[in-house]
Write a structure and sequence with these properties.
heterodimer, A: 1% strand, globular, B: 18 helices, 2 strands
């Protein structure tokens, strides 16, 4: 049997952080003279109590965690805090049902922001801040997961991104700490900068803060049902586009750039592909907007770029309702949603690097057909890709496709129509948020779906966030054996 | 440069076969007193003349032998040239199809896709009907021979697993390709005759029985009625289910020597998965139909089995308009198209054995997460699978989905709506035939699509039929070098 204490202790810490975070919306609501501050305060107290109980009850002199314990932590890191994060939603003025509240909370924490709440414009500011905060905290978690945890666990080819820690263990620890600090500073700094820029561009301070949080974490939290389209402000659109692009980049680059090592960023193949794909998608959608919708070229570019970036990074902001766009932009967006951002970013999806690996391998395959006996090895960032990494990536892709197929079939089984089921499943697994179609498209909400569908989508979001395998491994019998 | 003379030489023989085949519809039309017989006779003469010109123009001394490069070129060229000549009767007959439509119809027939642009089949002259069935049948034969004789040698997409086994260790017989090809052809002819007899016994007219037998065993899916198999009764539909299932199974396994007193197909891992998969999908769909759409259990089971088999074997027959069955059916059929039949069959799609290998690959990745230093080997039919084969399979599947995405976007670019573009691209690539949606659904027609879309789909059908890499390799630089 696995020793659960270290697992619970870490989860307890996470819950405590969440409890502290709840105080922020409580303060905002208190200042606004809104009754709801008591809900947040009470929830914070309750959450803190459970968090502390978990943490203190299972605290141990520090020991190395085993691989299995790490998996357990990862598997529940979004679900357990999600339960507590749902408290203010259940008992607040929204009066959501438990299923809805957990859906909303997990959607927030996984930086998905598929929402069941409509009428955001009229909500108390505390709740708006809480949704943004969930996404923002989740974003940090996702980055930490993508940089430190998943590469170590070798999930789905992430082992190619192991941090190189040369030298003795002590130096490695201090290097790790510096990296963590640099990334945290980068994350906070970027959010703050974006918030200030948005404020200068004409948003109120509060709106600027919420949108900055929702953008850098690619969660897509907003203060309005019409998302960024509400502001109808060119500067805001451009700023948020840039912020989302940043959110989809590998955050480790912050560390290198802060250390004055800019070349690493320029040479990174993943980044190039990411930007190239964004540019390509933008080109297609812009051309369609200009041609079919008759937008002025610059407007088309602004909205096209915004939409493509938002979908590919899995943010879910929108300026125009792209649900009723014609076949071509819909097809482009549908496929880009699967691609996702870079490894070690806050974005979701399959991630660009996996496609690069597989594409490089497929090209090698064509060459191998002609030279059966040549030794041809695919490479990434000038490093050869080992055989088992390719196997991992392919395994990941297969499970992703299988998960998508199962989820969309189950949703359709529960009575959703084709477009809603397929795009909803894709949006949940890729942590995107809104899907396509009139019901769950941009500006729509998941509230009308059957409860079971919401439960499935919640699990889909959580599993998509931890790259499926970290969840799947719990179901291997060997995992639980001695 | 590559010596293309042997390629053209072999190609000439294929065209000669086609020219001879055109004689059959000519005779049918002549006996029915239809003036179209002249079109077939002239087309036959043109084709025959071109074939003879090719054969005599490129004849070389000694036995012609093909290098790998020449074989790649032959497979692609053979499909393009036969489709071009097979389109002649469509273009000049009373149907007066435009060149685009004629080529689409011919390509769809020869690749056993079964997507049609002809409306009003019930009143079409018999010559055209039998010509369409013949195209299916000849295409199906070509595909099995290709899958058994050529693709394994070229090591396309993991097909080297099926390279001619030099028999068991005990027997010293080396089955040569011609022998195997002959026995497969015999099996193919016998199955077609059996299917025709069964159709006739089940209540079809003789002409319809022959046409449908050819279309079912080749998993082509051209029918003699606009209502496809819904035009006939229960017994005919059950016969069609069995015939399609046989068409989607590996033909080699029916012919080889029996082991332990039964045909090898009963012990084949792929055949087991195939039957289990079809059974599960049909069962779930039937239950859903029974529970949600209030169909009686028997009818639900028949329609579910029929349409699931028609889709998995990529035949494209339909017994009911599953477009009207609601969301679950849409999603299910959309996903089923990707599965495909067994290797060495006339079915298209990704093929069951590749999914099996991917499934094992994902399982191994999962095991490796827990035992990072373990050594795992994938077994298929009790034999270990070499890493090179896994590479090919991965490359194939990646290319498959990549092609699907690119063509879907291309279709949407020429003005096709989202569902039609997605399902049309999937159906063409898998050589399935009908898609989902109002235009190209089970009883729909590809006629209303823009010409550009038809060209795109024709190209995609050929790509899918030739397992992508055969064509892709022609576009690689190293193919043309030296």
């Amino acid at each position: 049997m696995i020793d659960l204490r270290p697992v619970l202790s870490i989860l307890g810490t996470l819950v405590c952080i969440l409890a502290v975070a709840m105080l922020l919306p409580a303060m905002v609501d208190f200042r606004d003279g809104h009754e709801e501050w008591m809900v947040f305060a009470t929830s914070a107290g309750l959450t803190l109590f459970f968090g502390l109980a978990l943490w203190l009850g299972t605290r141990q002199p520090s020991r190395r965690r085993s691989v299995r314990q790490t998996y357990l932590v990862v598997a529940f890191a979004f679900l357990l805090p999600g339960l507590f994060a749902a408290l203010p939603l259940v008992y607040g003025p929204l009066q959501l049902s438990v299923v809805d509240a957990v859906f909303e909370a997990v959607a927030g924490l996984t930086a998905t922001n598929a929402t069941v709440v409509r009428g955001l414009d009229a909500l108390p500011r505390g709740l708006l801040l809480w949704r943004a905060l969930l996404g923002w905290l989740g974003g940090i978690g996702v980055v930490a997961l993508g940089i430190a945890v998943l590469p170590e666990l070798a999930v789905g080819g992430m082992q190619m991104f192991r941090l190189e820690m040369p030298g003795p263990a002590e130096r490695a620890t201090s290097r790790g700490r510096r990296i963590a600090l640099a990334i945290l500073a980068g994350y906070m700094g970027a959010t703050l900068l974006l918030a200030i820029a948005l404020w200068l561009a004409g948003m109120t301070g509060f709106e600027a803060l919420v949108h900055a949080m929702g953008t850098i974490s690619t969660s897509g939290a907003s203060t309005s049902d019409a998302s960024v389209g509400h502001f109808d402000n060119g500067a805001v659109t451009v700023l948020i586009t840039l912020g989302m692009i940043l959110g989809g980049m590998p955050f480790l680059l912050f560390f290198h750039v802060l250390r004055g090592n800019r070349k690493v960023a320029l040479r990174d193949h993943q980044l190039r592909w990411y930007l190239a794909l964004l540019a390509l998608g933008t080109l297609g959608v812009t051309a369609w907007l200009a041609g079919s919708r008759g937008l002025a070229p610059l407007d088309a570019l602004r909205h096209g770029a915004f939409t493509v970036v938002s979908v590919m990074t899995g943010t879910g902001h929108f300026t125009l309702d792209y649900a009723n766009w014609g076949g071509m932009p819909a097809a482009i967006l549908f496929f880009l949603a699967f691609v996702g951002g870079c490894a070690g970013s806050t974005s979701g999806g399959i991630k660009v690097f996996r496609f690069q690996f597989l594409f490089a391998e497929a090209l090698m395959q064509v060459r191998r057909l002609l030279r059966p006996h040549a030794v041809l090895i695919a490479s990434f960032n000038r490093r050869p890709i080992p055989e088992e990494v390719l196997g991992s990536v392919m395994g990941f892709l297969f499970v992703y496709a299988l998960g998508f197929a199962m989820l969309s079939m189950s949703l359709a089984f529960l009575g959703l129509d084709f477009v809603t089921a397929v795009s909803g499943a894709a949006a949940a697994l890729a942590n995107l948020g809104p899907g396509l179609g009139p019901e769950i498209g941009p500006g729509g909400s998941y509230a009308g779906l059957p409860d079971l569908a919401k439960v499935l989508l919640t699990l889909g979001m959580a599993a998509g966030r931890i790259e499926l395998f970290a969840a799947l491994v719990l179901f291997v019998p060997a995992f639980w054996r001695q | 440069l590559i010596d293309i003379r042997p390629v053209l030489f072999v190609n000439g023989f294929l065209l000669l076969v086609l020219a001879a085949a055109m004689g059959i519809p000519a005779m049918v039309d002549l006996s029915a007193g239809d003036s179209d017989w002249k079109v077939f006779a002239v087309s036959s003469m043109v084709t025959g003349f071109s074939a003879l010109a090719l054969i005599f123009g490129t004849r070389s001394r000694g036995r012609p032998s093909l290098s790998a490069r020449q074989a790649f070129m032959l497979t692609t060229l053979a499909w393009v040239s036969t489709a071009a000549f097979a389109a002649l009767p469509f273009a000049f007959s009373n149907l007066r199809l435009s060149p685009t439509d004629a080529l689409f119809e011919a390509m769809s027939g020869l690749t056993t896709t079964g997507a049609t642009v002809i409306v009003g089949l019930d009143h079409a002259p018999r010559g055209i009907l039998i010509w369409r069935a013949l195209l299916n049948w000849l295409g199906g034969e070509g595909i099995i021979i290709m899958a058994v004789a050529i693709l394994p040698l070229l090591r396309i997409g993991g097909m080297q697993v099926f390279r001619m086994e030099t028999s068991d260790k005990t027997e010293a017989i080396k089955p040569r390709i011609t022998q195997v090809a002959t026995s497969i052809t015999v099996a193919y002819v016998v199955f077609t005759a059996l299917a025709a007899a069964a159709f006739w016994a089940a209540g079809m007219g003789r002409f319809d029985a022959v046409c449908h037998a050819m279309a079912a065993i080749s998993t082509g899916g051209f029918s003699t009625s606009d209502a496809k198999l819904a035009h006939w009764g229960t017994a005919v539909q059950w016969v069609a289910i069995v015939a399609m299932l046989v068409g989607g199974s590996s033909f080699v396994l029916w012919t080889g020597p029996w082991r332990r007193g039964r045909p090898r197909i009963l012990d084949d891992a792929q055949a087991h998965w195939y039957v289990a998969f079809v059974g599960t999908a049909a069962g779930v769909l039937a239950l859903w139909q029974w529970a949600v759409n209030d169909m009686s259990l028997g009818v639900a089971l028949r329609h579910a089995a029929f349409n699931v088999v028609a889709t998995v074997t990529t035949t494209g027959f339909a017994s009911a308009d599953y477009g009207a069955w609601g969301g679950f059916a849409h999603v299910l059929f959309f996903i089923l198209v990707f599965i495909g039949g067994c290797t060495g069959s006339t079915a298209g799609g990704v093929k069951i054995f590749r999914w099996e290998l991917l499934f094992s690959l994902a399982g191994i990745h999962l095991k490796r997460l827990l035992h990072p230093h373990g050594v795992f080997v994938i077994h298929y039919n009790q034999r270990p699978i070499a890493p090179a084969i896994l590479d090919s399979v991965q490359g194939f599947v990646v290319m498959y989905f990549f092609t699907f995405a690119v063509f879907a976007v291309a279709l949407s670019m020429v003005g096709v709506d989202l569902i039609t573009a997605l399902s049309g691209s999937a159906a063409a690539l898998a050589n399935a035939g009908p898609g989902i949606g109002e235009v190209i659904g089970p009883f729909g027609s590809y006629r209303p699509l823009p010409d550009a879309a038809k060209w795109i789909l024709s190209a995609e059908m050929m790509l899918g039929r030739l397992e992508l890499f055969t064509v892709a390799v022609l576009f690689s630089r190293s193919y043309w070098r030296e």
